[in-house]
Design a protein that fits this description.
Elements lengths: L1 E4 L10 E4 L9 E10 L2 H8 L15 E9 L11 E4 L2 E2 L5 H4 L10 E2 L11 E5 L3 E3 L6 H5 L2 H14 L7 E4 L5 H12 L3 E6 L5 H6 L4 E4 L5 H8 L5 E6 L6 H7 E9 L12 H7 L2 E4 L5 H12 L7 E6 L3 H9 L6 E5 L2
Parallel strand pairs: 10-11, 10-13, 11-12, 13-14, 14-15, 16-17
Antiparallel strand pairs: 1-2, 3-4, 3-8, 3-17, 4-5, 5-9, 6-7
Helix pairs in contact: 4-5, 4-10, 7-8
Bound molecules: zinc ion.
Length: 343
């Protein structure tokens, strides 16, 4: 089959479009004929060699996969040939205390497909049969691939971790990112007021169309000052952060007393200073979040059936142009998900 792989860590030039052996499936696995695969920052970190000991070389990236069932192992049932599916991105044991309580991503054996295993930048991928989930009818393959990782992450952060409730106000950093575009929608679905940010004026209208109540420019505006103004001094109850170092202090300054800051990543770096006095006096909660459970993904998917949630596809590249697609992501020129179309 054709696939995009890297044989050593480095820049986008390390990605090679080449002929590789078809994956073989085990008794509990399904072989999926990939039709689309969305990019994530994870793909760029993997290729760059962050936590390189976890990445099998040569490596096929791609954690957000949609396609059709091509073949199933003899212990897999309920997946007819050619069934249209998307792939739940997390693999876990399914029986430990964490898995049993919906905390799949805390399982000792937790792996992300396409990061710690071979992924979807390819014509075929082998995944656990239970990770193949039927695609909601109205979604194309490109749209379906834009859903799993970011909507699962946003749901876990806002629902399971931060307990965002109707009437609260949330700051969502960077609506143009995949996870930001999902978070704006999930927060509106939950009945919250959403203040979000963009890095360029061309993205402002798109953020409004997602349902954001207010859109600020994080390059040209004083975010904590604007938030104070927009909320009549009350500030926000929840901050949704995936940027880290660059946004941390502004996030803290934007939070109302008893505010909750939930973070799922650090695209700008992971070191910062915390004034603990400020945390206890204001009774802030600082929360980490990492992926989410299979059960949460099943819940999220229901909202795509009647368009309460919508995939945000920025652009579609052919598989062989994966390097160009990753370069676009690294430049933050996108709004929503960049998707590779496979065959
Ligand atoms: Zn487990």
């Amino acid at each position: 089959m054709k696939a995009v792989r890297f044989h050593e860590f480095g820049g986008p030039e390390k990605l090679r479009f080449e002929e590789v052996p078809n994956p073989k499936i085990g008794p509990t696995e399904a072989l999926v004929r990939v039709r689309a695969c969305a990019l994530n920052h994870l793909d760029i970190w993997a290729r760059g060699g962050t936590r390189s000991e976890r990445i099998p070389l040569p490596h096929i990236s791609g954690s957000d996969i949609s396609g059709e069932i091509s073949e199933t192992g003899n212990q897999v049932s309920g997946h007819p040939k050619d069934e249209k599916v998307l792939v739940a991105p997390g693999i876990s044991c399914g029986i430990c205390d964490y898995c049993s309580n919906g905390w799949d991503s805390l399982c000792e054996s937790y792996k992300i497909i396409g990061y710690e295993t071979q992924g979807g930048y390819a014509e075929y991928v082998a995944v656990p049969g239970k990770n193949a989930l039927p695609i909601p009818d109205r979604l194309s393959f490109e749209q379906a691939a834009a859903v799993p990782l970011v909507f699962l992450t946003a749901w876990h952060m806002l629902v399971t971790r931060a307990h965002l409730v109707p009437g609260e106000t949330v700051l969502v950093w960077a609506a143009g990112s995949g996870v930001g575009s999902a978070a704006v929608q999930v927060a509106k679905l939950l009945g919250a007021k959403v203040i979000t940010t963009v890095g360029s004026e061309t993205k402002r209208e798109k953020a409004q169309k997602l349902g954001a109540d207010f859109v600020l420019n994080h390059h040209t505006q004083d975010i904590p000052g604007e938030i104070k103004r927009l909320t009549n001094g009350r500030k926000v109850n929840v901050v949704f952060d995936h940027i880290g170092e660059a946004t941390w202090e502004k996030s803290i300054k934007s939070m109302a007393p008893a505010g909750r800051l939930v973070n799922c990543g650090v695209t700008s770096g992971g070191k910062t200073e915390i004034d603990i006095r400020y945390i206890f006096v204001k009774q802030f909660s600082l929360m980490g979040s990492f992926m989410g459970g299979r059960g949460e993904l099943l819940k999220v998917l229901k909202f795509f059936e009647d368009e309460k949630l919508k995939p945000v596809v920025d652009s579609v590249f052919p598989l062989m142009e994966a390097a160009r697609a990753q370069e676009k992501m690294e430049k933050s020129e996108h709004f929503g998900k960049i998707v590779l179309k496979v065959a």
